[in-house]
Amino acid sequence: MANLPVQRSSSKDIAAFLHKAARTPTLAQVKGRLIFAVDATMSRQPTWDAATEIQGDMFEVAQSIGGLGVQLVYFRGRGEFEASEWTTTPSALAMRMRNVRTRSGFTQLRRVLHHAAEEARRTKVSALVYVGDCFEEDPEVVAKEAGALALLGVPAFMFHEADDPNAASMFHEVARLTHGVYLRFDSGAAKQLRDLLKAAAVYAAGGGSALNRFAELTGGEALRLARSIGTKAE
Fold it and tell me: CATH classification of 34-229 is 3.40.50.300, yes or no?
């Protein structure tokens, strides 16, 4: 009996817990699944921290149009590559991200694309979001992986921080091959990244028509993304 908790939860606490659980969709209930891939090599710590704080907006904006399941993917160090479990709650994703610190290493976009294709063969994946600033791999190998992902119907939203020309060229190509989007955002622009992620989440949860409506209401980065992916958003 010594291991039992000293205090019991009140009926109010239990009711609050049950209410929250009832509002949290299961993976089977959400309409969209998004792979959120972030370069976690050493130069990326400020952006990683910003993404950790704003990722909850993806879930919030998608909730009214069917909900969202998100899987975190990141790479760092000497070949370290991690993929989390799928989650439908921002708190679980934030907890995972807060436990990660960036490490020096080379980019692994090829592995990200390969992993996304493997996931898409197991379950429906609505979109891949990739956030990175540089590229250090064989372009032909990466293009081949992008082609495989395209055959599975998964568009890649390539969000490019800063203006590295090698990354710009390859990210453009991945977006083109997968019928996705390449968009650049300014280093340290947390609001810009927030708006891009929200727009990507809307697309993942509701498709092009939902993104179109969202872009009409909000403008800004959502409108830029909608126009880039080819939806009509005046």
Answer: no
3-state class (DSSP) for residue 211 = helix
Q: At what angle do helices 190-218 and 220-229 cross, to 10 degrees?
A: 70
Tell me: the pLDDT tens digits for 151-166? 999 999 999 999 999 9
Q: Which of 146, 141, 130 is nearest to 178 (CA)?
A: 146
Instruction: Give strand pairing partners of 224.
Output: none
Instruction: Compute the distance between CA of residue 180 and CA of residue 74 in angstroms, rounded to an integer.
Output: 20
pLDDT in tens, 40-85: 998 889 999 999 999 999 999 999 899 999 999 999 999 999 999 9
**Backbone phi and psi for residue 116, each to the nearest 5 degrees, phi listed first:** -60, -40
The DSSP code sequence of 77-132 is TTTEEEE---BS-HHHHHHHHHT---B-----HHHHHHHHHHHHHHS---EEEEEE
CB 47 within 8 A of CB 40: no
Helix axes 165-178, 109-122, angle to 10 degrees: 20
- For the record, the structure tokens of 207 come out as 């498709």
Helix (H) or strand (E) holding 184, with range, is strand 181-185
